[in-house]
Design a protein that fits this description.
Layout: E1 7-18, E2 21-32, E3 37-48, E4 59-64, E5 72-81, H1 96-133, H2 137-140, H3 153-165
Parallel strand pairs: 3-5
Antiparallel strand pairs: 1-2, 1-4, 2-3, 4-5
């Protein structure tokens, strides 16, 4: 099976019902080996329309892009033949470079927010551990003759209880 084309041409069949999205119907020829004939097959695509500049009946050129949502995998590149008001009177369609720049800016901002959140959480966890832990057993029993290593078994438990009470 050949790879899908990068640019398609189609007719807008539904516009204005979804925010920043339209449905575009594309046409292709399919060969039926049993009938040994070609016939027309239609395929519908949900297409991103960032400025809501398309109207039902427009003939548009669309391009495959990284998914904008679960079902939207194409974006409008230009209006081939407008239906209704001229294309000059509508909001402009952003170029692919503009869309890529917007995507990268949003992505960089999202990554910066995520790293800041992670650093704050890491610092908070480190502060909570320091407060919870308190001084270690070695630090509490430095006054014992021979150091904390000399304390063993039952003596360590007794010392811990005594140190905890004071």
């Amino acid at each position: 099976m050949p790879a899908p084309p990068q640019a398609l041409c189609g007719v807008v069949v539904s516009a204005g019902r979804m925010m920043k999205a339209v449905k575009v119907r594309t046409v292709k020829q399919v060969y039926d080996s049993f009938l040994q004939k070609h016939y027309t097959a239609y395929q519908s695509h949900l297409v991103s329309d960032p400025n809501s500049s398309l109207r039902t009946g427009d003939v548009v050129r669309i391009a495959a892009r990284p998914p904008a949502s679960k079902h939207i995998r194409h974006v409008v590149t230009d209006i081939v033949a407008p239906w209704g008001p001229p294309a000059e009177e509508r909001p402009p369609i952003p170029s692919l470079k503009d869309l890529d720049a917007q995507y990268r800016a949003k992505r960089d901002a999202r990554i910066a927010r995520r790293t800041q959140r992670m650093e704050e959480a890491r610092a908070e966890r480190a502060g909570a551990r320091a407060v919870e832990k308190g001084p270690s057993l070695k630090e509490r029993h430095t006054d014992v003759v021979g150091g904390p290593e000399a304390v063993g078994g039952e003596e360590r438990v007794v010392l811990e209880r005594n140190m905890g009470d004071s």
